[in-house]
Amino acid sequence: MVTDKSRPAGPANLPSARLPAASAAAPPARQVPASSVPDRFFSLAPLALLALATLLAMYLFPVGSALADAAGHSADLAADHGGGHGADSLHLDGASLAIWWVIPFVGMLLSIALFPLIAPHFWEHNFGKVALFWAAAFFVPAVALLGGALSFYSLVHTVVAEYIPFIILLLALFAIAGGIRVKGSLSGTPAMNLAFLVIGSVLASVMGTTGASMLLIRPYIAASAHRRYRVHTIVFFIFLVSNIGGSLTPLGDPPLFLGFLKGVTFFWTTTHIWVQTVCMEIALLAIHYVVDSYLYKKEGSPTVPATEKIGLEGSINFLLLAAVVGLVLLSGLWHSQGQLVVWKDITYLFSDITRDAGLLILTFLTVFITPKATREGNNFTWGPIKEVAKIFFGIFITMIPAIAILRAGVEGELASLISLVSTATGDPVNMAYFFLTGALSSFLDNAPTYLVFFNTAAGSATDAAAFMMNQIPQTLAAISCGAVFMGANSYIGNAPNFLVRSIAEERGVKMPSFFGYLLWSVGILGPLFIVLAFVFF
């Protein structure tokens, strides 16, 4: 069991044991000058070696040349990717890409995992540059080997259609939720922590996992600020509030929202996977309560004197949160014919423009109307969202070839994996759908991963959603559960995971490393997923 020992040992039940969040944070190794030559050399050396390995692998092994065939089969590819304009369309053909194209993505993941451990000072000041480096490690060879037109098309499409909407939504939720402060003397007892997790799990399906996480994480951390062991509380928060709790409606998590846009009825997941969701939640809540109770008693059952009445500040922001949910739902229900052509067949629908513009207006409003003292009481800073924006830019760009190969299905380098989801007679293997969707969603974007397996299961059905809901509902349930539940497996499995980790670190909780968190998820979630699969799939 990994525990949080960032606070000194001592009589934790004394009032003085409750330190302000800023003073509670473990001081980073700032004694090393930023310009230290050895530090920079040994930190940059792995990047240089990995970059050289990337370039050598891409030149020495068959990488495919998608550009030569792009114009010829662009119409077919456009049908697979949701539209296009004939020969003006350029889409990255995953079937022609070798597996070596995923090296920059793997390098990005290893940087997130290893640099905070081997070079924390360098990572703290240069994570944005590292993300940009790995984005370039994909883009530069792509221009050289696949051609400038196709490479720029892939970059622009990813930024416009995926990254910008992603970061605008996160920014709005982060800013608005940061303006709501639960004031008063909260005491992070096992019972109170359990109540937070239950409420958060319910809210996750109403306002989304990101909205619920950003709303509750700060008071949740503040309630246990006087405690010595806190890491487990944040890990289970990520499991339940940031992921599994969002399984019951399309508003809960992006994969389910995409299913809704494909034709899956709004309450289908509510009625078809509520048993799996409740079973997972009850099991995790029980495990958390047992662990939290044990550690609470080990600390001496510390309490906080009731010096301030519990209340809310910035409650006007609840209206803004409701507006965010409304804008997201509107963008899915409003089938706009108007669009802004960005480049070639890359378009920005008026419904999406309305949503993103509205979210930015709401972000401005919350900054304008929320008293400064409220945000200061929350210890609110823009640091976590800046970190997420920079790191996920690198993830989104380096993920381009990985998603393309996955979308190629049995014609791509991952054909051996895709073939596992069907029997020789073509019948779906639901357990394989659950684990493969989940495993890939743990590290890739779970929304396109959901769509890949959704389309694979639907096959040539005229109405894919109707076929899935009526003919193979257990397969749709397996895909839905895998995409949402297993987003909890890693820090990058779902967007709020990384935000929660960043906010917790900023508030003085020494969170596990990337691999350390994987030990938590594999050790706790792994057995539960296996039991769930055998019982339901």
Structure report:
- The protein has 537 residues and is mainly alpha-helical.
- The protein is built from 24 helices and four strands.
- The chain has helices at residues 21-24, 37-60, 66-70, 74-80, 103-118, 120-146, 148-177, 190-223, 231-240, 254-262, 268-272, 274-298, 317-333, 350-369, 372-377, 383-398, 400-407, 415-418, 430-441, 446-458, 464-470, 473-485, 495-506, 514-536; strands at residues 181-183, 311-313, 339-343, 346-349.
- The strands form two sheets. A two-stranded antiparallel sheet has the order 1-2. A two-stranded antiparallel sheet has the order 3-4.
- The longest helix has 34 residues, at 190-223.
Structural class: mainly alpha
> What does the overall shape look like?
globular
Global Rg: 23 Å
Strand content: under 5%
Largest β sheet strand count, sense and barrel closure: 2 strands, antiparallel
Number of helices in the DSSP assignment: 24
State the end-to-end CA separation: 30 Å
- What is the string of SSEs from the N terminus onward? HHHHHHHEHHHHHEHEEHHHHHHHHHHH
The helix fraction, in percent, is 55-70%
- Strand arrangement across the biggest beta sheet: 1-2
Oligomer: single chain
